[in-house]
Structures are given as C-alpha cells and as structure tokens.
Design goal:
The structure is a single chain. The protein has 8 helices and 8 strands. It is an alpha/beta fold. It has a single domain, classed as Aldolase class I (TIM Barrel), CATH 3.20.20. Helix 4 links the parallel strand 4 and strand 5.
Length: 228
C-alpha cells in the first residue's frame, strides 16, 4: 500500500472563535472532554482579514489546560514573523496562507526546521495548483469554505471541486496529507465535504451552539463523516 492509499483518520477540530474568552482555559477543557481531536486557533491580525483574535501569549497560557494538539491557522500578513512565536507557545502545526507568503517553500522549511508540522491554507478564490510543488513539505492542506475573517458564515459548496482536485493531486504524488476544511461545517454540510475528500473538519458554531452540548455535536459530526 502506498502512502496515498492509506485511509486518513476523521478528525474534528473545534475553532476557538465562538468560545467564551473570559474562561478560555475551561472552554478548552470542555472540548477535550467532549472528544475533540485538536484545538484550532484562528489567528487574525486585522490586516490580512478584517478581524482581530488572539496572540501567542493567550495560546501559551492555555497550553497547560489540555493535552490536545494545537494547530495555528495564521490569517496574518507576516506569518514568517509570527510562526516562531506560536510554535514557542505550544502549537504543533502551523498553517500559513498561500496568499500571504512571498517564498512559500522557504517559509514551510523554516517551520519544519523549528520542530513543528507545516500546513498551507487556500482562500476560496486561490487555485489548488499554487501548492503543487510544496505538497511534499506539508502535513495538511486547509481549504477555506468561507472567506476568512468571521465565524458563522455560510458554507461554500463550490470548494468541494477544489478538495477533490487536491485529493487527486496528493494521490498522484503518492503522499499522505490531511485535507482540512474550515467554514460553515455542520451536520448538514460535513457529509458533502467528506465525499469530496476532506478528512479533518473545523467547526465552531456547530459545536459551541449545539442544543445538546459540545460532546453530542462532536459525536454527531464524527458519525456523519465516518459514514459518508
């Protein structure tokens, strides 16, 4: 079996955007108890996207609360400056936007040389071909199924074509790379994204606002994705 033929694990990664930031550590503990696979930190600088979230000190202060892996989704204009800070803060995976990086190969190699895993993120309008020559460097590709900046947006089903094309590209290169999708993921859309080829799912509102709580939300999302 080649690496590309391995079945990658379904993972549910709660976004911290809808969390109560006045009790963020406790919120993360609840997500860990609820069965989350990782914590997805949406890092926004107010420039690359029209919103501000948290810095590395906030992430570092929460690292002791849970043992879950942390992934940092850097929606920032200067990921080369900030990547080392979030690695030091305890993030295991650093994802940079193709649109914000001048020398993508170099940026990814610097992240890898720091001991973290590297990932790339594509906005809805960015073609998948832009990352074909760096797939061998990454652990994960994040496809945005909304335009980044705010939670609670409507899922863009047009990105499913991009996911399928990415999956084919990964298979052609005989690689094992997670395909993550972020934006509008809920119990009604996760099956579509799974059919397209995604195996890692970022969800915020669908988890925090579920009437039966985060554990039920994560269980349902995992069950639907695993059955798709």
């Amino acid at each position: 079996m080649t690496m590309s033929e391995e079945k990658l694990q379904i993972e549910i990664c709660p976004s911290i955007l809808p969390a109560d930031f006045s009790r963020l550590g406790a919120e993360l503990e609840t997500l860990e108890e609820a069965g989350a696979d990782r914590i997805h930190w949406d890092i926004m600088d107010g420039n690359f996207v029209p919103n501000l979230t948290v810095g590395p000190d906030t992430v570092a202060s929460c690292r002791k609360n849970v043992s879950l892996p942390f992934e940092a989704h850097l929606m920032v204009e200067d990921p080369d400056l900030l990547s080392p800070m979030f690695i030091e803060a305890g993030c295991d995976l650093i994802m940079v936007h193709v649109e914000s990086v001048r020398h993508l190969d170099r940026t990814l190699n610097v992240i890898l040389s720091s001991g973290a895993k590297a990932g790339v993120t594509l906005n809805p309008s960015t073609p998948i071909e832009s990352i074909s020559n760096v797939l061998h460097l990454v652990d994960q590709v994040l496809i945005m199924s909304v335009n980044p900046g705010f939670g609670g947006q409507k899922y863009l089903s047009s990105q499913e074509i991009k996911i399928t094309r990415l999956k084919n590209m990964i298979d052609e290169q005989e690689l094992s790379v997670n395909i993550e999708i972020d934006g509008g993921i809920n119990e009604n859309t996760i099956s579509q994204a799974t059919h397209a080829g995604a195996n890692v799912f970022v969800a915020g509102s669908a988890i925090f606002n579920h009437p039966d709580g985060p554990a039920k939300a994560i269980h349902n999302l995992r069950k639907i994705a695993s059955s798709a």
